[in-house]
Amino acid sequence: MRRFVSTFVFCYYKSYVVTQNIQTVKKYIVHHPWKIIEEGYKPELNRISESLFSLGNGKFGQRGNFEEYFSGETLQGNYLGGVYYPDKTRVGWWKNGYPEYFAKVLNAPDWNGIRIKINNQELDPHRLVITDFSRYLDMQDGSLNKSYTAQFDDGKKVKIQSTRFLSIVNDELGAIKYSITPLNFSGDIEVILPVDGDIKNQDANYDEQFWNEIEKSASARAPYLIVETRKTAFRACYAMHYSIQGNNKSKSLTQFDTIEKPKYIAHKLDVGIEEGKTTTIYKYVAVVSSMYHENDDMKEVAAEVLAYAKHKGFGKMLDEQKAAWDEKWNRADIVIEGDVAAQQGIRYNIFQLNQTYTGQDERLNIGPKGFTGEKYGGGTYWDTEAYLMPFYLSTSKPEVARNLLIYRFKHLQKAIENAEKLGFSHGAALYPMVTMNGEECHNEWEITFEEIHRNGAIAHAIYNYIRYTDDKEYLAEYGLEVLIAISRFWAQRVNFSEEKQQHVMLGVTGPNEYDNNVNNNWYTLRMAKWTMEYTQESINYVKNTIPEEWRRIATKTSFDEDTELKTWDEICNNLYEPYDEKRQVFLQQDGFLDKELQPVSAIPENQKPIHKHWSWDRILRSCYIKQADVLQGLYFFEEHFDQDTIRRNYDFYEPMTVHESSLSACIHSIMAAKLGDEKRSYEFYLSASRLDLDDYNSDTDEGLHVTSMGGTWMTIVQGFGGMRVRNNMLVFSPFIPEKWESFAFKIMFRNHLINITIDKSNVSIFNEADQPLEVKIYEKYYTIGANGTVLVDVLDKE
Amino acid sequence: MRRFVSTFVFCYYKSYVVTQNIQTVKKYIVHHPWKIIEEGYKPELNRISESLFSLGNGKFGQRGNFEEYFSGETLQGNYLGGVYYPDKTRVGWWKNGYPEYFAKVLNAPDWNGIRIKINNQELDPHRLVITDFSRYLDMQDGSLNKSYTAQFDDGKKVKIQSTRFLSIVNDELGAIKYSITPLNFSGDIEVILPVDGDIKNQDANYDEQFWNEIEKSASARAPYLIVETRKTAFRACYAMHYSIQGNNKSKSLTQFDTIEKPKYIAHKLDVGIEEGKTTTIYKYVAVVSSMYHENDDMKEVAAEVLAYAKHKGFGKMLDEQKAAWDEKWNRADIVIEGDVAAQQGIRYNIFQLNQTYTGQDERLNIGPKGFTGEKYGGGTYWDTEAYLMPFYLSTSKPEVARNLLIYRFKHLQKAIENAEKLGFSHGAALYPMVTMNGEECHNEWEITFEEIHRNGAIAHAIYNYIRYTDDKEYLAEYGLEVLIAISRFWAQRVNFSEEKQQHVMLGVTGPNEYDNNVNNNWYTLRMAKWTMEYTQESINYVKNTIPEEWRRIATKTSFDEDTELKTWDEICNNLYEPYDEKRQVFLQQDGFLDKELQPVSAIPENQKPIHKHWSWDRILRSCYIKQADVLQGLYFFEEHFDQDTIRRNYDFYEPMTVHESSLSACIHSIMAAKLGDEKRSYEFYLSASRLDLDDYNSDTDEGLHVTSMGGTWMTIVQGFGGMRVRNNMLVFSPFIPEKWESFAFKIMFRNHLINITIDKSNVSIFNEADQPLEVKIYEKYYTIGANGTVLVDVLDKE
C-alpha cells in the first residue's frame, strides 16, 4: 500500500513511515506494565493522546475524546465496524479499471458527551485552569480514566473524575461514569447529555456529510437517535440511559429539558452539587447497527441493551469487563521482565489488536488505523494476511483467523470481477489492494494494477492457517476455490519470453514500493510459483480425501484439469528467476544491478526519510528499498532456502533498506534473529515496539498503526522466540535480548495453551493442556506432558 | 504528453488519439479548396462546427459560437493569448516535486453577442424553425460567414446573414456584420449588443470563476468592460462600437437602453425593420489586454482601435484582411490538384496554424488546441519543438521560429529551478512537460519526472533552427546557455552501471507513453548523447568565433571546462545503447524483447483503441507502441543511419504501433516515404490530413488538434516532397501520391522563396529570389537561377 506524505494542501493521504528522527519522539507516556498513563495537562499533545486512549470492542470504537466540550486541538472519532461510505475519488489521471469510489470508514455519531456549565461557563478544559490532570488507559479492563481539577473564571473549582469503557461482554454498550466534586462552593450546575450525529469526516474528499437522520426522540423513555449513511444505507441507532447520584436538587431527574437539533438529541438537567461532596453521572449508550439487526428491531434491541446496563450497574459491568479481558490476556499476554517500557509497548499492541478485531464477524477486517482514526479509509490491505494473521492464529481460537480467511472467500466473486475488468478471464481473481466490501478502492496504476503480490499473500494465509491449525477441511470448504482463482490469475499474468525462453512477469510492483512497474520482481514470481504448486497440492489433497467435494469445486469453477494443471506445471517448471551469479543473490527485479548500489549510510541525514525529500523518480532510480521485498519472500518461504542463501541476501539487501514503512522492521528483526544477529534484531524491535506510544513517526495524532502492531508481536514470538511451525510441530529457537531479564509469551496451538518463558539461563515451556505436546527446541525434540514443563538450557542454542 | 479519455465523471482530460473508427467519422463538411462549408442546420453537430469555425489572429481567438443566443449544445469559447489562470490541481497521490497548479487557458469575456427579440421571442436558432442554413469559413480572408432563415412562433420569418472576423491587420479588433431581413412582416425588433465577462471554464477543476470585474460603463461613448484574472492579475479591456444601417425607426441610435450586470454590459435598442429590406448591424469590439498595454492606457488604446474601425469601415477592413492573408498564403500555400478533400485538408491546417501563432511575441506559444477549446489547459508541450518548428521555419520569416526558441530561453531559469526541485544541481535544466510560464504544470510522476526526452527536443530545435536558417549567432546570443543546461541535466541523469560497465539511464518514459518508467529508452539515450556532443561542438564554435561571448557565457553558467567537458566525453564514449544483435534493431528499452511481440493486427477490432479498452498495466505490458519512439530518433537523426538500419527498425516497430496519438502518423508517413513505401506513406497522411474536418477522433467538439496540424504539413513537405536540409542545402526526393495530379508547396529558405511543384512527370522548382540557389534533387545537384526554375523528371528518382 502506498501511504503518502501530505506535503501539499490537496493531498489527502499521510505517510505511514518510520522517520527514525529520535529528536522529535514525544516520550510523555509514563511507563507502567499495565497502564498507559498521561500525567499533567498537555493540550498540545491532545490529538496524540486521543489516539493512544482509543477504545474498541471489535464492533465499535472511538478515539479518546473528552466527554467535556473541548475547544482545543481534537480529532473527534467514533467508528462502527463494517460501516463505510463510498467517498468520491480524487484522481487527476483516470485509467481504465480504476474504482469509482474510495471507501471511507465513517465518523459515526458521538455518544460520549457530558457537557457541564457552571455559572453559565462551559466546563471546557481548554479555557479553564486545569491542575492535577491525569489520564490512563487500563489494559486490564479496557477502561479509560481521567481526573483533574478545573478552576472557572469566577474562581469556582471542581474535581472531575471519569471512567469510560466499551463493553466487550455486551458489545453494543458504551458506559461512562462521570464524577464532579465542587471544592470551594455549593450550587447548581447545568448538565447536558447528548448523542450527536451531526459529524463529518476530516479527510472526506468533497466535504460531504455522510449521515442522514432517520428518526429521533429526545423525550422518549430512552432518548434515541437513528441515522443512516448516504448511498450505503447503513443504519445506526443510539439510545441513552443515565442516572445521577448525589444530586441534591429538589427536582427529580424526570424534570429535564429535551433538546432536539438536526441529527442531535440531548437532555439538559439542573443538578445541585455540594462543596466537598461528589455527584456522579452514569451515562449508558446502546450502539446498535444494521450490520446486526433489522431496521425495525433496532430500537427494541437498544432498549434491551440499556435494560441490561441498568440492571447490572456500572461497577458490576466493569468487573465483568475485567474478567473478560483476563481471559484474553490469559491466551495472549507477553511478559517482559527487566524492561517496563518494552512490557508496556508489547501489551499495548496486544491490547489494541484485541480491541480492533475479535474474529466474531467474518464481514469485518482490520483497517490500518482500526477504530482510532480516519486515515487510509479503514479498508483492508494485505497487512491482514501478512502481518496480522500470525498474531490471531496464535492468540485466539482458530475461528478468529478462519474468519479472516472467510472474509476473502466471500469477496472471491468481486475479485474475479476485478480481474475481468483488467482483461483476465476464466475465473482468475485479483484481490484488491484496498477494499471494504471486495471492490477495489485504490487508484494509482502502479499499485492498483501492479502490486499484485497481495494475491499471493492471500493464498499464503490459507496455507499458513492450515499449517498452524491442521484444519485441512478448510480447503474443501472454502480455501481451494480461492487458491484456484489466484493461480489462474498468475498463469494468465505471466507471458512467455521468446528472448529468455522462459515465462516472465512484466510490469509489477513488489512490496518495496520504492520501485514501480518493474519486470520480474523475484518476490512476486516466487509467490506465483508457490501458489500454483500449493494449489495443485491442495487439489490433489481434496481429490484424494473428499472426491465428491473436488467434483463440486471443479464443477463450480469449471476447472479443466487437463489443460489448467498442465499449464501451471509448464509455467512452474520454466519460470524465470532473476539471480545474480556473482553475488549469488536473488535479484529484486530485472535491471536492479544497473542501479548505483549504495548503502543507506550514504544518504545525508538531512535527506531522510527519502520519501519526504526526494522526487519520486529519484527514489525509483535509487537502490533504496522501502521494506522487505526479496527478504519478505525469504521470510515466507524460509524453509526452502539454506541459511547461507538467506544470509547472502540479507547482507546484500538490508544495507540498502531505508525501512520507511512501519511493516519493515518486524521482518528484518525476525531475519536478523534467524541469522544470529541478536543485537540487530533487538534494534529493529525497538523501532517498532513503541511506535505509537512514543509517537516515533510524528503521526500518532491521526490514529494508531494498528496493522503494524501484529509485526511487533511477530518480532518477539518469531524473532526472539524463534517460533515456527514445521511438520505439524512447534519449533523454537529463542534468545533473550541483553537488556531483558526474562520474557514469556503464551500461544494457542491446536488446543494446547502453551506458555514459553525465556530467561538468561533457560527456556521453559509449560503445556497447559491435558494432552502432551511434542516440540522442538534448538533442534532437539521434547515431549511436554499434559500440564507439564520442559526446561532447556539457553546454551543449547550454540 | 499524456492525453486521457474521460470515461469517468471526475476525469478532466480527454484523449488525443486517432480512433480509426471510420464508421463514426462525421464527414459533413462540404469539400471546397478554400472554404470550410457546413450546409443545412445541424444543431447536433454544433460543438464540432464551433471548433472548426474557430477564428484567431495570434493575439486572441474564439470558437465559432453563434452571435445569437443559442440554447442548444455549445461550448462558448474566447481566449486571449498568454492569459492563463493557475487552476488548483486535482491529484490523489501527491509526489515531491509536483507543481502546485495546473495552468488553464482562460475562457475570456464573450464579445460576439448580437441578441435579437421579435415579438418578445428570442432569436434562438435552437427554438425556431431554421431553413436554408449554411456557414462557411473563408480561408482566404479568415472570415466566418453564416446565413439562414428563421421562422418565429408567430409565423414571422427573417433572413439572417452574418460575417465575422478577427483582424490580423489591427490585431486587437474583432468585427461583425450582421444583417437581418424580414421576409413576411415589418415592425420593431429588440437588439441587445453585449460584452459578457460572466463566463467560466467548462473544465475548471473546482468550478471557480477566474475573472473579477475592475471597471465598466455601459453608458460611456464607447461602452466598455474591464476585467482582471484572479491570482494572475491579467487585465483585459473590451470596448464596443456599433452602427446600424437600415433602421427605419424614428428614434436615433443615441436612444438606447444600457444594461449593466456583474461583469456584463450591453446596449438595448429598438430597431425598425421593413419587409424585404435588409437592416445591418456592425459591431466592432476592441480587445485590449495587459499583455501589451499598461492598465492605465487600456481604455484609451481601445478607443483608438474603435476609431480605426469606424474610420475604415467593415468592407475596407475585410479587404485589407484578405490582402494580409494573401501574403501569408503566398509564403505558405500548398496546392493539391486532383483531390479537393486533400486540398481543403492541408489548407485548413495551414490556416489554423497561422491563426494560432504569428511569432510576433516570444512570450506566446502554441497550445494543443490553440484558440479553439479549453482542453489540455493551453500549455506548451514538446509538440512545438518536434512537430511545429518545421512548419514555421519554412513558411515564415526566421524571427517566428526564433521566437519559439526564445520562449524556452526565457524559461531557462525556471527549468533550472525545476531540475533543482528534483535533486539536480549546478545549473542542470529540466524543461517542463507542460507549461505556461516556464513552471511545470503536469503531475503524473511517470510523465512529469520521467518523460525527460522533451529536454532533448528543445535542444534539437535549436540545432534545427540553425541548420535551416544558418543563424549561428543565435548560439552565442541565446542557444548555448540552454544547451549547456540541458547537457548538464543529461550528465547528471545517467549513472554508471557496475554490472554493464557503461553509463545507463534508468526510470524514463519515452515518446511511446504506452511504456512507463523503463530503463534505457534508446530514444532518450540517443537524444542525451547527441545533446552533449552538439553542445560541445557549439561551445567550440562560439569559443573560436566569438571568444569574448564564450567567456561571458562560461562565467554566467559557471562552466568548468576541464571537468564538465571531460565528464560529457566520458559519458558519450561509454553510453549504453540497447540493441538486439539478432534482429539488428535498436531496442526501445531494456527488456522490450521479454514482451509478447505481436502485430497490431492481433488486437481484436472491438478492443481498439486499446487505451479505451485495456487497463493501463495491460497496455504497459504489451508490445504496443502509441507513437514513434525508436523511429522518432531515426527521424531526428536520419543522417546518422543507413537506409537498411532505418528499414529494419521500421519493419520491426511499425507493425506494433497502434498510432493512438495524432502525432504518430506524420513521422511514420515520412519514414515510409523515405523507405520508398509510397502507398503506406499516403495512408498515414490520410489519417491525419482531415483529422478535425472529418472529426476522425470524435473529439473535435472540444477543439482542434492544433499542435498535430504541423505534422500534416511535414508529411507533405518532408514525406511526399522528401525535403531536407543537408550541408546548408535544400535536398528533395519527391514522389506524388497516385490519386493526385500534382501538388506544390512554397517554402522560405534563407531569403529564398521557393515554389516546388510535383506532378506525374516532373519536379519543378521555382526560385522567386534574386539570388541563385543550389539544391539537390534525387541525389543530383542543381543551381536554380534568380527567378529561375529547374525541371527534373520524376523518373530520376529511381
Describe the structure.
The first copy, chain A, contains 20 helices and 33 strands. In chain A, a hairpin with a 4-residue loop joins strand 22 and strand 23 (502-504). In chain A, helix 4 packs across helix 20, helix 11 (522-545) runs antiparallel to helix 13 and helix 19 packs antiparallel against helix 20. The longest helix of chain A has 24 residues, at 522-545. The model of chain A is unreliable at 1-23 (pLDDT under 50). Chains A and B meet through strand 22, helix 14 and helix 15 of A and strand 22, helix 14 and helix 15 of B.
Question: What can be said about this structure in brief?
Answer:
Chain A has 20 helices and 33 strands. By secondary structure, chain A is α+β, with helices and mostly antiparallel strands.
Itemize the secondary structure elements and their pairings.
2 copies of one chain form a homodimer.
Chain A: E1 29-30, E2 35-39, H1 46-52, E3 55-56, E4 60-62, E5 78-80, E6 84-88, E7 101-105, E8 115-118, E9 121-122, E10 129-138, E11 143-151, E12 157-166, E13 173-182, E14 187-196, E15 211-217, E16 224-229, E17 235-245, E18 257-261, E19 264-273, E20 279-289, H2 298-312, H3 314-332, E21 334-337, H4 340-356, H5 383-395, H6 398-410, H7 412-421, H8 445-448, H9 453-469, H10 473-493, E22 495-497, E23 502-504, H11 522-545, H12 547-556, H13 561-573, E24 579-580, E25 585-586, H14 610-613, H15 616-621, H16 630-636, H17 643-653, H18 664-674, H19 678-689, H20 706-720, E26 724-726, E27 729-732, E28 742-749, E29 752-759, E30 762-767, E31 773-777, E32 780-784, E33 789-793
Parallel strand pairs in A: 27-31
Antiparallel strand pairs in A: 1-2, 2-10, 3-4, 4-5, 6-7, 8-9, 8-14, 10-11, 11-12, 12-13, 13-20, 14-19, 15-16, 16-17, 17-20, 18-19, 21-28, 22-23, 24-25, 26-27, 28-29, 29-30, 30-33, 31-32
